[in-house]
Specification:
The protein is an alpha/beta fold. The chain has a single domain (75-420), classed as NAD(P)-binding Rossmann-like Domain (Rossmann fold), CATH 3.40.50.720. It is 39% helix and 15% strand. It has helices spanning 39-70, 93-104, 120-129, 146-155, 170-175, 177-198, 231-250, 285-293, 321-334, 353-364, 388-394, 403-416; strands at residues 29-31, 34-36, 84-88, 108-113, 136-140, 160-163, 202-208, 253-259, 261-263, 300-303, 315-316, 318-320, 339-345, 351-352, 370-373. A seven-stranded parallel sheet has the order 5-4-3-6-7-8-13, sandwiched between helices. The protein is globular and about 60 Å long. Bound molecules: nicotinamide-adenine-dinucleotide. GO terms for molecular function: UDP-glucose 4-epimerase activity. One of its GO terms (biological process) is galactose metabolic process. Pfam families: GDP_Man_Dehyd (PF16363). Its cofactor is NAD(+). This is NAD(P)-binding domain-containing protein.
Length: 426
């Protein structure tokens, strides 16, 4: 797959260098009762050794020539005007959209992902769009493996890190908290240590409104106290704290972006959201609505219709992934040396679950069935952002404010890829 997958594990047995040799015949000759190993095979052997030496010398000189002609890998050298961004979790939903935008803007991208939740199909799609050498490389690796992470920093001239990689479902985090602290907090520590060792100074970090917990006042500003109520939010807040503490000692340029609920997909239909089927039980509302519209599940269950909101259902702030990615690019551009800046990334507008379902019905053209259930413990009535700080300081504002259009973008991709990235229907 072109320059992709250079670090994907390969099976040693299939390599031509591991072919089994056939057993040699013994070369002894009999002359008049004298059993003598003839001089001929010895000469033959010496000849072969000489040939091997000559051949090795030839190969080495050819190799030296090839590498001097090709020059060192573009990924291993800094280039003026080109930012080489390490995108952790770049095979996932948001990371792949971010990689697309960075590549469109002329940057160099290294995606690091363990494919535990992401899709190689998304990376292949990016590679097909940007096949030129030195634009995009995929490195298979787990952020929990600090040796591997350090190797990647060692072998590549990285200018900035966008750290998306994480597992990210609230309900899963309640069932398996240690996994979340390991995957989110411990792995962020590994990334920071590698950045420190290799002198990489710029970091854009994916945080979440889940770090705020259940704020008393809406809208949520960056100064709203962070009191997370589940392991996912707590692990993300701990990562933020690690980053802030480290930044005070290391002259880092850091942007922490706290996302609200991310929806939509590339409006041109090049990428989409394709969570693994086994994650369906944790599905976010858009995934559940689409599964219902596609007939995979009979309908959706809405929990709670007696909240103190306009129609009794919960209110959330839905941000289109393209707008979110735009915030990352602006953050990358404006990150200041020695400064940690924190921004909410949301629309500033809340939509109720009922409104969301109506928009989903409109976008899919399917009258999705809804079952109303009692409230789910731990759900809060209203969450929406105050995005005025990011508007003021980064000149960013959400452009996709119509839920129906945002969901239509995602549904178009979903309809053409009913099995995610594995099959495309034209
Ligand atoms: N989707 C949302 O609504 C939302 C909201 C707020 C914050 N976020 C944050 O945005 C980031 C991206 O979320 P997403 O929705 O794209 O999730 P995703 O699951 O689609 O992508 C995450 C990617 O990280 C990779 N990954 C996970 N653990 C890894 C590890 N140990 N080593 C290497 N790669 C690993 C996965 O394989 C996957 O490709 C996460 O940090 C998440 O917490 C998402």
């Amino acid at each position: 797959m072109g320059s992709l997958g250079s670090a994907m594990p390969t099976s040693g047995t299939s390599s031509p260098f591991f072919r089994r040799r056939s057993p040699r015949l013994s070369r002894t000759y009999n002359f008049g009762g004298v059993d003598c190993a003839s001089m001929q095979p010895r000469l033959y052997f010496v000849g072969k050794v000489l040939l091997a030496v000559l051949f090795t010398a030839f190969c080495m000189s050819a190799l030296r020539q090839t590498s001097s002609l090709a020059g060192p890998s573009k990924f291993a050298t800094h280039e003026r005007g080109v930012t080489h961004v390490l995108v952790t979790g770049g095979a996932g939903f948001i990371g792949s959209h971010a990689a697309l935008r960075l590549l469109e803007d002329g940057h160099r991208v290294t995606i690091l992902d363990n494919l535990s939740r992401g899709n190689m199909g998304a990376v292949e799609q990016l590679q097909a769009l940007f096949p030129e050498p030195g634009r995009l490389q995929f490195v298979y690796g787990d952020l929990g493996d600090s040796k591997r992470v350090n190797e990647i920093f060692e072998q590549n001239a990285i200018d900035a890190v966008m750290h998306f990689a994480a597992i990210a479902y609230v309900s899963e985090s309640m069932a398996d908290p240690l996994r979340y602290y390991h995957n989110i907090t411990f792995n962020t520590l590994t990334v920071l240590e590698a950045m420190k060792t290799h002198g990489v100074k710029k970091l854009i970090y994916s945080s979440t409104c889940a770090t705020y917990g259940e704020p008393e006042k809406m809208p949520i500003t960056e100064n709203t106290p962070q009191v997370p109520i589940n392991p996912y939010g707590k692990a993300k807040k701990m990562s933020e704290d690690l980053i802030k503490d480290f930044a005070t000692t290391a002259d880092l340029s850091v942007m922490i972006l706290r996302y609200f609920n991310v929806i939509g997909s590339d409006p041109k239909g090049r990428l989409g959201e394709a969570p693994r089927p086994e994650l369906r039980k944790h599905a976010r509302i858009s995934g559940a609505c689409f599964d219902a519209a596609a007939g995979i599940i009979p309908g959706i269950q809405v929990r709670g219709q007696d909240y103190n909101t306009s129609d009794g259902t919960c209110i959330r702030d839905y941000i289109h992934v393209t707008d979110l990615v735009d915030a990352h690019v602006k953050a990358l551009d404006k990150a200041e040396m020695g400064k940690v800046s924190i921004y909410n990334v949301g629309t500033g507008k809340g939509s109720s679950v009922k409104e969301f379902v109506e928009a989903c019905r409109f976008a899919t053209g399917v009258n999705v069935t809804v079952t109303m259930l009692d409230r789910r413990p731990g759900d809060y009535a209203e969450v929406y952002s105050d995005p005025s700080k990011i508007q003021r300081e980064l000149n960013w504002s959400a452009q996709h404010l119509d839920l129906r259009e945002s969901l239509a973008d995602a549904w178009r991709w979903r309809k053409r890829h009913p099995d995610g990235y594995s099959v495309a229907m034209i």
